[in-house]
């Protein structure tokens, strides 16, 4: 099968490197490496400070506007203008480089790649990583109809259903984890919670549930909301509840594989839940809230779900999940959450569009 020339648009806001700021950056890193390993020519466009091994072209996030323009009373926030400029410059460059790439894969959350897709000579695939947002939904609805060279993928059936009003028939390509890297661990240790420490991830819920269950809990991830961590999480630490830091993937594999249970406590409708896939690959059963895509990723062999927001139910789920077989969790990851299935899904999309 012939190699493709792929332009992969990533986040301008965060670097694509370990330790990852979030699941989107981890997914982009994994996808770029896997496509390259399968012989494709991949050019990643991402934020400053990204992993040098990816050969990232940094997006131009510094805005070259004059002091006169900055004094305009309608001047938007600097961060908004920086992202807008970065993606505007990139899309104009791609429009001029009509024969450099076979396909463009937009893995960002920005509206401009979708809005400007008709200016490209090559087709564009956009992955829907989040529920509908006002800016992106506006760009989707404003684009031309079926003649537009845009194809949409969604990271779960749940996310595809959320977008179905403006993007009917999005192809579901679930995020995947490298099961050769995320390997089974011995388990038996206190439960683990991993992810960005922000209110919507429900860190506080996980801590309170673990206290009720009497199991202890280890927290890992970036403190993306310092005020939330300082005011809501730090007072709950101590005894058998510990924050172990923002870990790279190798350290996370060891941590998650050592845990008896992975606790996943979203307070929003999680579009996918990469931490679920990572836990299952490590053979660690999941206790979580039945929100978003979690019921789609788990079954009774590898997870126990509680009603959203029910801390007592989550505590009971932690106790029950610890009794599940680790081999069943690993098998579920191999069937449902493998990186191989993800890459094959995107390759099919690319080739269909190129053909």
UniProtKB/TrEMBL annotation:
Bilayer-crossing regions: none
Keywords of this entry: Glycosyltransferase, Transferase
Organism domain of life: Bacteria
Ranges where the Glycosyl transferase family domain occurs: 194-322
Location of the Glycosyltransferase subfamily 4-like N-terminal domain: 21-180
UniProt keyword annotation of Glycosyltransferase present: yes
Pfam families tied to this protein: Glyco_transf_4, Glycos_transf_1
UniProt xrefs under InterPro entries: Glyco_trans_1, Glyco_trans_4-like_N
This protein's record includes keyword Transferase: yes
Protein name: Glycosyltransferase family 4 protein
């Amino acid at each position: 099968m012939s190699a493709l020339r792929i332009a992969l648009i990533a986040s301008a806001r965060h670097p694509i490197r370990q330790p990852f700021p979030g699941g989107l950056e981890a997914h982009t890193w994994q996808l770029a490496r896997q496509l390259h390993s399968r012989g494709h020519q991949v050019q990643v466009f991402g934020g400053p400070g990204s992993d040098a091994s990816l050969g990232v072209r940094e997006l131009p996030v510094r805005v070259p506007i004059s002091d006169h323009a900055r004094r305009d009373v309608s001047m938007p926030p600097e961060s908004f203008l920086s992202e807008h400029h970065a993606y505007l410059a990139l899309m104009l460059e791609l429009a001029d480089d009509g024969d450099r790439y076979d396909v463009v894969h937009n893995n960002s959350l920005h509206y401009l790649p979708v809005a400007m897709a008709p200016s490209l000579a090559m087709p564009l695939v956009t992955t829907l990583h989040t529920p509908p947002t006002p800016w992106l939904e506006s760009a989707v609805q404003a684009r031309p109809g079926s003649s537009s060279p845009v194809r949409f993928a969604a990271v779960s059936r749940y996310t595809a259903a959320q977008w179905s009003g403006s993007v009917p028939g999005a192809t579901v390509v679930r995020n995947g984890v490298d099961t050769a890297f995320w390997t089974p661990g011995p388990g038996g240790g206190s439960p683990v919670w991993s992810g960005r420490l922000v209110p919507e991830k429900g860190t506080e819920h996980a801590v309170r549930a673990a206290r009720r269950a009497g199991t202890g809990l280890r927290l890992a991830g970036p403190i993306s909301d310092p005020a939330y961590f300082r005011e809501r999480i730090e007072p709950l630490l101590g005894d058998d509840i510990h924050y172990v830091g923002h870990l790279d993937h190798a350290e996370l594999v060891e941590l998650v594989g050592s845990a008896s249970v992975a606790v996943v406590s979203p307070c929003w409708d999680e579009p996918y839940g990469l931490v679920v896939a990572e836990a299952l690959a490590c053979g660690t059963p999941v206790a979580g809230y039945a929100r978003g895509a979690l019921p789609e990723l788990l079954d009774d062999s590898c997870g126990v779900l509680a009603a959203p927001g029910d801390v007592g139910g989550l505590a009971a789920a932690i106790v029950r999940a610890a009794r599940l077989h680790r081999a069943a969790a690993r098998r579920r990851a191999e069937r449902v959450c493998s990186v191989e299935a993800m890459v094959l899904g995107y390759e099919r999309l690319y080739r269909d569009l190129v053909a």
